[in-house]
Design goal:
Elements lengths: L21 E3 H6 L1 H10 L3 E5 L2 E6 L2 H7 L9 H6 L21
Parallel strand pairs: 1-2
Antiparallel strand pairs: 2-3
Length: 102
Amino acid sequence: MTTINSAPGVADTSRPFVGAPAWKLEDAKARFSEVVRLARGVGPQYVTVRGEMAVVVVSVADFERGRPTDPARPAFLAFMEGLGLQDLDLARPRDTGRDLDL
């Protein structure tokens, strides 16, 4: 397992992507049982393709925890898009500071 700022074989789930351990795709394929075991026991397992983060293998429990629990409630992104804020003008005049006599 290739790691980024971490000891080999030790998953650091406190900092996803930055400093997280990562499996090269070919290693993850060859040792898939271990990837699954670690995803279930330790935390998400990141897989890279050509050195770039590509996918994350997570346990069912972690996956379910991230899904909306009440189908009657919209997902967060759908909720935010439904607020109709796309025409909101957030521009403001440039602040040049104030003149001081010292």
